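User: Reviewer 2 asked us to show a designed sequence for the structure in our supplementary figure. I'm pasting the structure tokens here. Could you produce the per-position amino acids so we can include them in the response letter?
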């Protein structure tokens, strides 16, 4: 089964009241609001982050 994620709606909901936040705050908001709700996405993001030399 394929599970679709409505990233645009999630993005809007996460940031609608936080547009003036700093980049660091926005990263934390995105992590708390979105990535942490999808464990496979979280794993893939962290793996890609480390693989590309950012970690």
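Assistant: Here is a per-position design you can include in the supplement:
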């Amino acid at each position: 089964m394929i599970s679709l994620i409505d990233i645009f709606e999630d993005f809007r909901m996460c940031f609608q009241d936080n547009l003036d936040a700093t980049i660091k705050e926005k990263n934390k908001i995105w992590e708390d609001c979105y990535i942490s709700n999808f464990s496979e996405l979280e794993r893939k993001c962290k793996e890609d982050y480390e693989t590309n030399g950012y970690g």
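For the response letter, you might also mention the following. Residues 44 and 50 are 10 Å apart (CA to CA). The mean pLDDT is 77.
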